[in-house]
């Protein structure tokens, strides 16, 4: 009799086990973190939830990257659902450099940054996608074309004539 | 995933990145990186332009005032009647002078970075123009051109002396330095509250303006290559002498004059098109009929319109105040289009006047 009462009082917490691409590293997360990913949330809605722990293999995402994604989502586990900025003034909603998101993403190497954006895109975590894109915006800000090419290790494929022509083309007229 | 570079991101993510970039500066530089980036950005810009042209609702975004350099401790003081222009070559907006609510003229200069959205005070060097308001500042490649203006000398009404300026200054952008090109008594008209705009990046066109006792009805042209100022012979029925109008360069040969105030009728609400000939020597006036005059803002002088694509946008006071005599904190803009057609056979210009309507 007493055992039943205890069972009712302890809330049932669904746990999810994410397995990274190395098939070894595991992350145990709860629903608050999982639901930030639109893909996983949708996946779990059709999943039988009778087990207390559901295993999700994510063999496209490396252990390091998955760790970063979960660290980011953990920070927002008790926040309101994210509403992505829309419309042509979306660029004005960029968080300041001292915002937690920007500080967090700044601490990553550029490989880690691209990985995390890619993973966020794969898992459809819109808050993380936007934060990553805004971080890239800061990386290009007040940079010349040459500097942008160096930062992103891009090579130009324009001839000198074309380059001159593109420079003089008005973007907004 | 062994991705390392930005190019390994899917195209949708790249599009999203460019969409969230500041539209001035960053986007333009990113476009020059390579042909893939350029293709994607051009697509995004086309999309944003389409959105703009079908836009019916406008919303305000407050840009919080930030100082780029903490060396300058003071913020920009409140002012009116200052001169400002967007400078294309360094992607900033420059602002010069103006006057306080007590009519004391100012001569400080600021620039607003369009990319980082930050104000920065300009360390002016060279011959700095004397404090003034109602002068014009124009962007011409590597230089800014400042002309005219007026200043009240003293706050005491007995000693008050009003001065109008006819001097011309260049601001050399790379050196952040002023140069006086023409002094005050060199034969240029002394004008304030005039209209000025650049034609083909070579000629500065000056129309109207006030010289204290009188309003100017002539058109002056300054050739930046030869630095010769001359009066333009104009045919056709021109606007009556006025000041505080809005002058917009439409294309290489056409200048639009909108509104203003004069002695005969007070405030004007008319539109004139000034068309120059091929060699920019002679010009012809033509009045443009506005079809829905009921949508004109209540006061059409002293406010500057801004050309956005094929429209001229004005910000004006409302026609009415609410019944409890309160204004809304932010103007609510409603678009009302009026087509001003020109029968000269070239093309018709869409003149879209935006104004705040009464909120019932």
TrEMBL record, chain A:
Signal peptide: none annotated. Keywords: Ubl conjugation pathway. It comes from the Eukaryota. Residues 127-170 form the SKP1 component dimerisation domain. SMART domains: Skp1 (SM00512). SUPFAM superfamilies: POZ domain, Skp1 dimerisation domain-like. Gene3D superfamilies: Potassium Channel Kv1.1, Chain A. Pathway: Protein modification; protein ubiquitination. The keyword Lyase does not apply. Belongs to the SKP1 family. Probable essential component of SCF (SKP1-CUL1-F-box protein) E3 ubiquitin-protein ligase complexes, which mediate the ubiquitination and subsequent proteasomal degradation of target proteins. Regulates cell proliferation during embryonic and larval development. This is Skp1-related protein. It comes from Panagrolaimus superbus. The lineage of its organism: Eukaryota, Metazoa, Ecdysozoa, Nematoda, Chromadorea.
Automatic annotation (TrEMBL), chain B:
PROSITE patterns: FBOX. It holds the Pfam family Beta-prop_FBX42. InterPro entries: F-box-like_dom_sf, F-box_dom, F-box_only_SRC, Kelch-typ_b-propeller. Residues 3-50 form the F-box domain. One of its GO terms (molecular function) is ubiquitin-like ligase-substrate adaptor activity. GO terms for cellular component: SCF ubiquitin ligase complex. This is F-box domain-containing protein. It comes from Panagrolaimus superbus. The lineage of its organism: Eukaryota, Metazoa, Ecdysozoa, Nematoda, Chromadorea.
